[in-house]
Amino acid sequence: xxxxxxxxxxxxxxxxxxxxxxxxxxxxxxxxxxxxxxxxxxxxxxxxxxxxxxxxxxxxxxxxxxxxxxxxxxxxxxx
Length: 79
Fold this sequence. Notes:
Helix content is 49%, strand content 0%. It starts with a helix and ends in an 8-residue tail after the last helix. It is built from three helices and no strands.
């Protein structure tokens, strides 16, 4: 099965990809932590260990934030 062979190769890199996402999430956390209007993802308990497939930011001014980020060339998605 071709798909199984491809997945087998990709799985070897998964820990590295997850570590990279966590480093980026930490940069986001540091850069955004002083903005009171934002709720950032975080886990206080060590039993939770996010892989940050998505970095979800919550705010009551979502549409304005999306417009600003778009002007700055930052892609956002609403789920």
